[in-house]
Each structure stands twice: as C-alpha cells, then as structure tokens.
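During data preparation, a discrete fold description was generated, as reproduced here:
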Amino acid sequence: MGDFVLILHSPDNALKEFVTQRFVENGLCVSSSNHPDELSDTVLIVHAEEDVICKEAETLGFLKRDEKGFKREYSSSQHDLFEPPYTSQAARKSLFTPSELSYITHELIKRVTIKDVPDFFPRSKSGVHPSDSMILALERVEMGECWPLHSTADERMAALGVGPLKGSFCDHVEHYFGANVALYFGWLKNYILWLILPAVAGSIVFGYHYIHPEINVDNSLVSPIYTFCIIIWGMLFVKSWDRKCSGLVCDWGIDAVKWRSEVRPRYHGRKRISPITGLPERHFPSQERIFRYIVSACVTFFMLLLAFSVMVISLNLQGYIHGFSYSRNYLLYPSISWLCDEGEYFDPAGNGPIPYILLYIPVVLHVIIIQVLNKIYQVVAINLTQWENHRSPTEHENALFIKRFFFEAFDCYIALFYLAFIERDIVLLRRELVSLYTVDCIRRLATESLIPFITRKASRKISNKQKEGETDIRLGKDYDKAEYEQFDDYLEMVIQIGYVTLFAGAFPLAAPLSLICNVLEMYSDIFKLSLITRRPVVHRVTNIGVWSVLVKGIVLLSVFTNLYIFCFTSEQLLTYAPSLFEVTPLTVEAALKSGSDHVHDIAAGAGMTVATIMTCLEHVILLVVAVIWILVPGTSSSVQNELARREYVKFVETHGEAAHVGGISAMSIDSSLY
C-alpha cells in the first residue's frame, strides 16, 4: 500500500542498475514494470518491507494508539501493544494507515543518496553531489520522476466513499491521502457548516428587499446590521477553524512527527560547511535573493498593469465608465464605450440587437481574459519563484502562493474596488458582483471536473495497451493523469470569502449562493481526486499554511471596506442620518448610465462628523474583533490536556517511574506552549 513508481527518462540499463542497487542497499525493494505507453522510459516500482517500515516509524516518532486507547510514540520493540487503525478490512493487515505507509516509504526513498556520482550525472552542469538524495537529484537533472501509486480500490473507496458532510469523513481522507489533503477538506467542510447561518440571514435580507421594492441595498436599514454580523462571523469562523485544525492534528498524531530539514531538488548555491551540522551543503546568499525579489516585484507590477487595463476595457464595454463618471477624464475610451450606448450591442438596459444576451458578452470575456492572464502569470510566477532559489519546499511554496494569490485576487477584486471606492455606486457594484460570481462558479465546475474528465476519456488509450503480467495496472490507470494541485482549490474558496465579507452590504445573496456552490465544490473535488488526478504525495502538515493568514487578512480588511460602503458608497448612513448629506438629482441621460437617479454627497460642514462616525464605528468593530481573538482560544482545553498528557508520558518513559514517584505530574508541564 506504500508503493511508489519511479520513471527513469532514459533507456540506459546502467542507470536502472545503479538506481536499483542504491535502493536495495538502503533496505528498499525494487521491481521492474513495462511503461504503459511502450516508450523508452524505464519503470521501477519501489516499496519497503514491514520491518523497515516499523523502524522508520519509530525514528520519525509516529504516534499510535496503544491497547488502552491512548496515543503514544511507537516502538518497534513493543509492536504488539499497539492497535491497528481499522479503517477498512484491508487496513487490518497493517498497524499503519495507507497514508502513513506512503509517507514512510517516501521518506525512505528520499534518504537514499547517490554516494558515488556516475558519469551520467555531470557534476559541473547539474550540481549533483554524492550526499544528495537520489530521487531529488534525478528530478533536478530531469532524468526521473516519482509519485505514489494508489492502493486497492477498497482502500480508495474507504477514504472517499463516506459522505463528505459526515463527521468521520476527514479521518477517512487522512488515513488514505494524508493530512495535506484531509485538512483542505476539513477546512472546506468547516466553512460550509459556518456558512449556514449567514446564508439564512442573507436570504432573509434579500426577502425583505424583495417584499419592499422601494428598499434595496443602497438605502436598506437592515443591510448595515447584516454587514456587522458578517464581520463578526468572519472572525468567529477563523477562530473556529484554528480550534478544529488543532483537534484534527491532535487526533491524527501528526503534532509529534519529528522535524527534518528538507532541501528543494532545484535549490543551488555555493558549497560550504554547514555551521549547524558541520557537513557540506549548498548555500545561497540572502543579498542576492533580495535583488531577485525586486526583479520579481517589477515583473509582477507589469502584469498587474495588464490586468488593470483589461478591467478598464471591460468596464467601458459594460457602461460602468461613462461621460458622467468620476474617472471619465482618464479612464473613459469613447472608441469602445459607444458599444454600450442605448440601442447598441452591449446596452446594459437590454435594448440591443439581441436583448439580454449580448450585454453579458463583456462579463464573459472579462472572466475568460482573467483566466488567461492568470495562466500566463502562473508560468511567470513559477519561473520567478524558481529563480529566487528558496532553500526549503515550504519557503518556495509560500513565495509562489503569495505571488499568485495577490495577482489573482487583484484580477477578481479590482473592478469591484473601482465601483465601490471610485465610482461609489453600490447598485453597479452589486450588478458586477452578481455577474462575476455567477460566471466564475460555472467556469469552476466546468474547468475543474467536467472538461478534464471528458478530455481524459477521449484521449485515454492505455487500457488497450496494457499487457497481462507485465504492466502494473495501477500505473496504467495513473500515468496519464495530472498531478493533484491544491492551490486553485484553496484560492477559489479564499476569493469567495472575499465576495462574502468584503462587500457584504452590497450582495447579501453571496452567502447562500456560496453555500450551494461549496457543497457542489466538495463533491467536485472528491471526483477530481478520485478520477482526474494522481494520488498526491503525503505531507504530514499541521495546518493549512499561508491560506489561514490570508483569510484572517481578508476578514480584517472587510472592516474597512464595509465601513466605507456604509458611510460613502451607499445611502445606508444617509438613511440613518439624512442631515449629514445632500442629495442631487441626475439628468435622465446620467441616470440611465448610473445605478440611481441621484447622487449624495456630504453636506457642507458635516465632513468631520461623518469622519468621526466612521472612525468610532471602526474602533468599536475592531475592539469586538480583538475581544473575540483574545477570549476564544485557538486550541480547545481537551486538546491542550491531550498534548500535555503525551508530554507527561514521554517524560516518564524517558526518565523512568522514579520521576513519577518523585512528584512529577502532568500538571507540571507547561500547556501554554500549545
């Protein structure tokens, strides 16, 4: 169940024998298999025997449940005292779950070094050293690739056959796919459950506006209350996930896995003696990386200008930038904006040649071009991050994620920020929100599951080429699949949280629509993981990484965006305090272009009062947020007690029963560390 496939991109038998010999010398079992496409590549299937797995699990500090039901560090000498996971009938044969077997095997594979660099590893070109990991060196010089094979169909169904909204779903996913996949589904499930309350509230607000046609998001008395609740909801959701995440990680026993420094396969630098280990290592000076950061920032800024230009063209074609706009002097382009004039092709009122159909073309084109730019920048960001030469995989991934997130978030939000803070038109803001959100939801479901599945079915020819007894059937099923990529899954959800929180007062239906879409998204992701992608490499992570920080940032930013919308963009504050504003009617032509037949501005002498109201509201909301952050702990008391108990057991096992008799108790361990 912990089998890995190693593809050597060379027919050279000497390479095959060299790799096989090094793996066997390190206690791994290697067998040959035919390439499913009958190409010249060499295929090796690598796995480890049970005794090797057990020794490595002890070295890594795995936690397993003992006969008393408590988790403690695994010891191979006490193997019979630990209970198997019983995730399925097949798993009863092993003490370790499929994800643990896969993780341990991968660690063993990565530990195999080259030792003696052969001729087909040119040192001067590839920077390969004898102490380098074999598999990482093969990947660095593009001579090989490695990924885990699926276990039996029963094991996969045990992981994904459980209903995604059931309580044990995340545990089943972790048992087979590992914590990196399970935490995503756990986070998504937690998000779905927490969306129920704002979905109900948003539906009530929408129903209230529907029953009273004279009231809309611009002048509603209930929208500010809903907005305030959404901000508080966002912070509670963040804290709830911190607690949920710590509980899941504690249950899975991942918190105790011993840390190991890991170097990226393509990391390069000057050879030096490590000040920590005293061994030779590659070192890249931080001063050189700072210069590369500056270059990356300049390239990203140029790409952002392209995205901004696309936004301007889209807003011109949709009629949001017109002769009465605040930005007409520098963002209006009459050569294209005439297409949305009355009676023309993209007339927003639906009076064009094909009513209520052509007017959606600019929105669809905007979404398509955004996706194209995102794909282009994805390649640019990968190359820039690779050029920055980060040492560890975590540093590399965080740098890449931050680049891509801010670029794609800019693409998604820039038009909305323009309408909210430059044009200050909440009706147009709501219209653009609905359009972008709807088109993007359809695009997500189509591009992530439907199109890849159809494409794969149409192009798959492996099944006709498999030969009985020569090609591993699991390799045949997985070879033509794409690698599992979590970035887009997380990104879509984080961007969606922005739609729900940043513009809550403008689009109350964002929460109920998100709830429906996310249930479909979860099933779509399960489908993708089952049939579209390869089995991912297991990473025993303890959190969702930078995504948690980004969600917290969006929730905090929503305080300021919603306050600005409340005070200036909409007429919500005007409804509560009409004496602070002046209302000016618009001409018929301007009203047709705008979302309203009038505009409001701060009355003469009332600017300081409005600013004071906004500042006081901001301080009150931030104070409430701070109180929630301080009073709601990120780790539950039960998890703190369990972690303290494990530390106590470990202390007693290390120092003997005399330490326990001498008065050392579980309460003496500082649980504040957790």
In short: The chain has a mean pLDDT of 80. The longest strand covers residues 42-48. The CA atoms of residues 3 and 319 lie 58 Å apart. Residues 426-459 form the longest helix (34 residues).
